[in-house]
Amino acid sequence: xxxxxxxxxxxxxxxxxxxxxxxxxxxxxxxxxxxxxxxxxxxxxxxxxxxxxxxxxxxxxxxxxxxxxxxxxxxxxxxxxxxxxxxxxxxxxxxxxxxxxxxxxxxxxxxxxxxxxxxxxxxxxxxxxxxxxxxxxxxxxxxxxxxxxxxxxxxxxxxxxxxxxxxxxxxxxxxxxxxxxxxxxxxxxxxxxxxxxxxxxxxxxxxxxxxxxxxxxxxxxxxxxxxxxxxxxxxxxxxxxxxxxxxxxxxxxxxxxxxxxxxxxxxxxxxxxxxxxxxxxxxxxxxxxxxxxxxxxxxxxxxxxxxxxxxxxxxxxxxxxxxxxxxxxxxxxxxxxxxxxxxxxxxxxxxxxxxxxxxxxxxxxxxxxxxxxxxxxxxxxxxxxxxxxxxxxxxxxxxxxxxxxxxxxxxxxxx
Length: 415
Ligand code: NAD
Prior knowledge:
Blueprint: H1 12-26, H2 31-37, E1 42-51, E2 56-67, E3 73-80, H3 85-101, E4 108-114, H4 122-136, E5 145-149, H5 155-169, H6 189-207, E6 216-220, H7 224-235, E7 239-245, E8 248-251, H8 258-261, E9 274-276, E10 288-291, E11 310-312, H9 321-329, E12 333-335, H10 337-340, H11 343-357, H12 363-388, H13 392-410
Parallel strand pairs: 3-4, 3-5, 6-7, 6-10, 10-11, 11-12
Antiparallel strand pairs: 1-2, 2-4, 7-8, 8-9
Helix pairs in contact: 1-2, 1-3, 1-13, 3-13, 4-5, 6-7, 6-11, 6-12, 11-12, 12-13
C-alpha cells in the first residue's frame, strides 16, 4: 500500500467557486451576481511575532470575510502549517454556503495562522491567539464576525480569544463560540459536529435502503470531529472498523471500542494488532467512509483505491473536484461538507443565541434542536437533488446559493 499525499488541493477557492457557478446556472443567476458571490468581502493578512528563547519567529495570520448578506460572518480559526490565503478564502466561502443551507442567520468567514499547532506550547498558543485577536478586534464582535475553533484550536483557545476581546471591547461572550462550558460555552456544542456527521451517515444509509446496525465505518481523523463522529456511529449501532490520526491508523474488523481509545494521547498508544498509515485508512473497504481531518485527502492519486459506498465529508473539502467526479461516475454517494459537518456551526448558533439572551439550554434541548434542524437540511437537499436530478453536493449548493443570492439582491447590493 502506498502513502498518499495529504491536503493537496491545487486551488481550493477555485474549486468552491466552480460549485457556486454550477448552482448559479441552475438558478439562472446573472453572471455579475455569480461573480459577486464568488468574491470575498474582505481579506486581512497579519504578521504575528512569536517570542522564542533567543529570538522572534514571525508567523502569518489571516481573517477572510466572505459574505455578510445573511448576517454577521461566522467561521473558525485554524492553526496548521499548510494554512494560506487561498485555503482560508475557500473555507470562508464554504461557511457562507453552510450557514445558508442550514438556514441560520450568519454569513461566512474563516481565519487561520500558518503554524504547526502540535509543536506549540500552551503559552505560545495563547500568545498567538491574543495577538491575532488584538490585530483584528475592529473587525470582530457578536454582530460583525464570530470566530470558533477549527483544526489545531479548541475551547481553551476560544477562552483566550474571548478574554482578549473583553479587555479591549468589554463583556460580550457571544463574540466567539466553541468556548469552555465554565466560560459561557453551551453543553452540546463540543460534540455537535461529530454528532451531526454520525446522524447524517445513518440517515444516508436509511435513505438508500441499507441497514444502519452493523454498517462498517472508517474514519480519518480522531480530533473533535472524528472522535464524536466515531462515538455517534457506535451509539447508532454502526461498527467503526478503522480510524487514524496524524500518528497512523488502527484497524479491527470486528469493530473498535471507541470509548477505550479516548484515554490515549494519540492512536500510536493504542494496543491493537493491525496498523495502517494515516491516509491508507481511506482505502479500507467499508460501507461508510468519513474523512474528518484535512482537505484534499481523496484526490486523483488515490481515488482508484477508494472502496466505500458512502462518503460523509466530516472535514472541509476532503475530496478534490476531479476525484469527486470519478467517485460519482462509479456510483459512490457523497454527502458534501456543507451539509455533513454543519452541526458545528448549528451548535455555534445555539451558543451565540444563548449568550445573547443570557440563558442556558439543557443538553437534551440542544441535541433535539440540532437533530431536527439537520434532518430538515438533509430532507431539503434530497428534495432538490431529485427535482434537478443532480448529486447531493450540487443540490446543497443550489439551496444555499439561492438563499444568499436572494438576500444579496434584496439588500440592494446591485445598486
Ligand atoms: P482537530 O484539530 O480537533 O483534529 C484533527 C485530527 O486530524 C487529529 O486527530 C489529527 O491527528 C488528525 N490529522 C491531522 N493530520 C492528519 C493526517 N495527515 N492524517 C490523518 N489524520 C490527521 O480538528 P477538527 O476540529 O476535528 O477538524 C477536522 C476537520 O473538520 C477540518 O477540516 C475542519 O475544518 C472540519 N470541521 C471542523 C468543525 C469543528 O466544529 N471542529 C466543524 C466543521 C468542520
